[in-house]
Amino acid sequence: MFQLQNKFKTTWMHPRSKIWHLLDYVIVRRNGIKDVKITRAMRGADGWTDHRLLRSILHLKILPPTRRQAPKKHLDLKALNIDATRSPLQTELSAHITLPAPTEDPISTEYLTEKWDNISEVLLNTAKDVLGFSRRRHRDWFDEQCIRSLVPDVRYETCRHTGTLGYRDLEAQEHRGTGTQRHRDGRTQGHRDAGT
Predict the structure, then answer these.
(1) Quick one: pLDDT at residue 17?
(2) Model's pTM, two decimal places?
(3) Helix, strand, or coil here: 18?
(4) What is the 3-state secondary structure (H, E, C) of 34-79?
(5) CA-CA-CA-CA torsion for 15, 21, 26, 28, nearest 10 degrees?
(6) Is the pLDDT of residue 165 over 60?
(7) For the chain, which residues make up each domain, given as ranges?
(8) Model confidence over 60-75: pLDDT tens digits?
(9) Can you spell out the DSSP letters for 134-192?
(10) From the centroid of its chain, how far is CA 92?
(11) How far is CA 137 from CA 70, 72, 134, 171, in A?
(12) How many Å apart are CA 48 and CA 51, to the nearest integer?
């Protein structure tokens, strides 16, 4: 990976064969390879040893921890389709919002901004009180359809291991509406009598 001389690529010399080997490694994930600038063996200045120090220069970027933000709340606009919710909202809004009488004088920008802020605040507060917020729910991955598809298999396995009623007999009993417990008890009693 790094184009260095061979003396900078090895870290340990075998005492008998005097051959240098690479024993020390710097382990980096694949996506972090671009952060490694250079890795090389450092020869000591204090004396001769059979081991060299491995030095790696990295360019790390430490990001601040991300704070998880609370999900935004949305008004329940589907409640406007119901008359029982729509009419209280209309009466509350008509009670709080009053329109000024028309005048001949030009209207200033500050006046319009102030009025718009008041109207938007009244609209939002009234909608929060009357409509409320919608609750988003994710669909459950294990629903009634999954349970219905598993229940016959569980019954079949139970019947096969206990040796009582067969799977088709259970289905027939369910469709007829008679109790399977009484039929099963009578059938197992017959098996016990036959075995003695």
Answers:
(1) 92
(2) 0.36
(3) coil
(4) HHEEEEEEECCCCCCCCECEEEEEECCCCCCCCCCCCCCCCECHHH
(5) -150
(6) no
(7) 6-58, 82-96+114-134, 144-188
(8) 888 888 888 887 888 8
(9) ----PPPSS-HHHHHHHHHHHHHHHHHHHTSS-HHHHHHHHHHT--HHHHHHHHHHHHH
(10) 40
(11) 16, 14, 10, 36
(12) 9
**Parallel, antiparallel, or unpaired: how do β-strands 20-21 and 12-13 relate?**
antiparallel
Closest C-alpha to 18, from 8, 10, 30: 10
Look up residue 193 and give its amino acid.
D
Tens digits of per-residue pLDDT, 78-136? 888 888 888 888 888 888 877 766 677 777 888 889 888 988 998 899 888 888 888 77
Q: Which two tokens stand for residue 71?
A: 């999900």
CA dist 53 and 173 (Å) reads: 80
DSSP 89-128: HHHHHHHH--PPPP-SSPPPHHHHHHHHHHHHHHHHHHHH
Per the prediction, the chain carries an average pLDDT of 76
Q: What is the pLDDT of residue 101?
A: 67
